[in-house]
Amino acid sequence: MKYIKRKIRHLKKLRSIIRRHTDNIIFCWRKRPMRKLDFVKTSVKEKSGEIKRPKTYLIEISTIQMIIILGSVMLLLMPFVTTFNEVVTKMVEQVEIYKMLQDWAAPYHIKVVTGLLNTIGIESFSSVDRIHMMKFGQPLSVFISWNCIGWQSFILLIITAFIGLKGPFTITSKVEALLIGILGTILMNIFRISLVALIAYYFGNMPAVIFHDYVSTLMIIAWLIVYWIFVHKIILHHKEMVKVRAV
């Protein structure tokens, strides 16, 4: 419990640092004040200027600037996500929830990844906790534990959903966004494990371990960023906008 409390304090400190740096990054790219688009009807008093709405700001960002911002955010979030994974893993180990992941989720992911490897021409077969591949007639095994299948990314998805889905959006669009997030997270984890197996097959175990420990975390962060940008641009629908369209 002392270890978990210490890690939670570390997480809170990292959260404040990340929030401060993210605000500074976004502030640096502000251009000029602009009016936000309103989906509600403007009243006569507002048109005549008797009622003045508070001026809001939009951020005009080019593609290169967006890449820089997203890359900076990913690097800032990486220690937070790594520490978060350690804390959650310790909690799961104490309550023995990992046995369910070990007996059901891990074998399912291993079988799917094995099928993908066979599809692209790499002879492989699966066991309870390993992917066995044949390279030049020699067996090559990759160990996949319950902690490698990316279940932490689902917890991060749920946590971010409390913020990302907050707002006057329709219930249908919220459910659709959440389902897309769950399906996308499953596919992302399968793709990530497949990359680990491919790197182990072509480059060896050490590059695969480095990819698993560091690049995998960046993949999870990148997926969540891209997912929420996509959801807010295309999937989520404002209630007022739906009413205007209906009229």
Give a brief description.
The chain is mainly alpha-helical and 247 residues long. It has helices at 2-28, 44-48, 63-95, 98-119, 151-164, 171-203, 205-235, 239-246; strands at residues 124-126, 130-135, 138-143. The radius of gyration is 23 Å and the shape is globular.
Class derived from helix and strand content: mainly alpha
Number of strands: 3
Please, how many domains? 2
Question: What is the general shape?
Answer: globular
How would you spell out the order of helices and strands?
HHHHEEEHHHH
* Mean pLDDT value: 75
Helix content: over 70%
User: What is the strand arrangement across the widest sheet?
Assistant: 1-2-3
Cα-atom Rg, whole angstroms?
A: 23 Å
Major sheet characteristics: 3 strands, antiparallel
Alpha carbon gap, first and last residue: 57 Å
Low-pLDDT runs of 5+ residues are 29-47, 53-60
Number of helices: 8
Bin the strand percentage.
5-15%
Write the layout of secondary structure elements.
Blueprint: H1 2-28, H2 44-48, H3 63-95, H4 98-119, E1 124-126, E2 130-135, E3 138-143, H5 151-164, H6 171-203, H7 205-235, H8 239-246
Antiparallel strand pairs: 1-2, 2-3
Helix pairs in contact: 1-3, 3-7, 4-6, 5-6, 5-7, 6-7
Detailed description of the structure:
The protein is mainly alpha-helical. It folds into two domains: 1-77, no CATH class; 96-247, no CATH class. The protein has helices spanning 2-28, 44-48, 63-95, 98-119, 151-164, 171-203, 205-235, 239-246; strands at residues 124-126, 130-135, 138-143. It has a three-stranded antiparallel beta sheet with strand order 1-2-3, with helices on one face. The longest helix is centred in the N-terminal third of the chain and has 33 residues, at 63-95. Residues 29-47 and 53-60 have low confidence and may be disordered.
